[in-house]
Amino acid sequence: MAVGIAPSTSENSAQYNGRITWFVVLSSMVAATGGIIFGYDIGISGGVISMEPFLKKFFPDVYNKMKQVSKISNYCIFDSQLLTSFTSSLYIAGLIASFFASPITRTFGRRPSILIGGIAFLIGSSLGGAASNIYMLLLGRVLLGVGVGFANQAVPLYLSEMAPPKYRGSFNIAFQLCVGIGVLSASLLNYGVEKIKGGWGWRISLAMAAAPASILTVGALFLPETANSLIQHGKDHQKAKQILQRVRGTLDVQTELDDLIKASDKSKTVKHPFKQIIKRKYRPQLVMSIAIPFFQQVTGINVISFYAPILFQTIGLGASASLLSAVVTGVVGTSATFLALLIVDRVGRRAMFSSGGITMFISQMLIGGIMAAKLGDQGALSKGYGLLVLILICIYVAGFSLSWGPLGWLVPSEIFPLEIRSAAQSITVAVGLIFTFIIAQTFLVMLCHLKSGIFFFFGGWVAIMTGFVSLLLPETRNLPIENMEKIWRDHWFWKRFVCDEQDFEKVET
């Protein structure tokens, strides 16, 4: 049984008027396209680096190892630091870009950051599709990383601020749903172009990232800025009120507007949000901004997302079958994320975290056990065991897509007060990208040395993170984003930090 205290689901959310309008739905759909560019890149890289023509042109050493499978362990065929640099260079670029995105998002608004992200991704995809050497390929990846850094920093904030409090979870999960759609689209495209004669199908895969990037870039030109952002960096409260009335579909928005103005006035007293966030009263938010993205990456999902075709080849499936298997897991992940979108504001965040964690842990232990018992350094799994591993991976992906996938973006974007929101979101994105980079860069080495133990490694982290959430994360369902500090004051553990700091400040003044 979890120890945290959940706030009433209607105590605060009922005070705001409004409904879901087509205006907010369309605006959120355009913004959530930022998730498609992220998911597309995750899905495309693993498929492209499993294509022989691509490897032969840019990574001939790996290609030669593939032709010597009888001499090399199943787990070590793709062990190449240059190859992993192709995947991971995007994430180190995104890490750096996210810190540049923070002041832009805070000073100029959410929309400019989304626009910059779309343009950078558009240029990067063009370079990747036209690459004639490894340097051009990596430069394209770096620009894709800049696009991901800006989009991931701004889009979840935009969605959480635009959404009605009662439905904030569903609106925000649209971002993760788009990530899943991006992964699935990339897997389908990889499967199709792999069969193109002449071996240039990988160029289509890389260049087609321009499609969602174009939608995001053009759409960002027409996106309205959020009322929170308009109030934060301007004095025109009437314009913010008009946006809020359009978004909520009612003229009676004064209560919500007053809360936004109050939060903005407080935020304007903070000149250096990165210094502010280390204060004791923001300790719970700081811990969550680091812990949640860290745990999201050590679930092992990137093992599946980045390297699904390679992983399936490791257990003995051919190139085409591996790409098709990646499509299957993509369908499962997208379907489960859509289900999460429907139930998150009814079931709550904590219950979904816990059930997803248990599902992932059990499936990872079973996959690791099968591979340890049935897959050696040479040879392959039998068709029966190969199918069983694929089913278990699908169960694992479903568990992630119902929990740590969408909630890893949702919860951080909704728990930060306005005065530290852009800084805290940058920390969240940066931590996620740091560990995405580390796992992307080290996974193939880990697979080579740990072999089937890689699943036990990530399964152990899943057990730890499930316990962490049960003990330390309070429920945020249906609570207005500007009233979120209540959950920390009521929590059995975090109240000692928040309340003590508030008492200290009263004495000091």
UniProtKB/TrEMBL annotation:
Keywords: Membrane, Sugar transport, Symport, Transmembrane, Transmembrane helix, Transport. The chain crosses the membrane at residues 20-40, 82-102, 114-136, 142-159, 171-192, 204-223, 286-310, 322-344, 351-373, 385-411, 423-447, 453-473. It is found in: Membrane. CDD domains: MFS_STP. One of its GO terms (cellular component) is membrane. Residues 27-477 form the Major facilitator superfamily (MFS) profile domain. It is a multi-pass membrane protein. One of its GO terms (molecular function) is symporter activity. InterPro entries: MFS_dom, MFS_STP/MST-like_plant, MFS_sugar_transport-like, MFS_trans_sf, STP/PLT_plant, Sugar/inositol_transpt, Sugar_transporter_CS. Belongs to the major facilitator superfamily. Sugar transporter (TC 2.A.1.1) family. Belongs to the major facilitator superfamily. Phosphate:H(+) symporter (TC 2.A.1.9) family. This is Hexose carrier protein hex6. The lineage of its organism: Eukaryota, Viridiplantae, Streptophyta, Embryophyta, Tracheophyta.
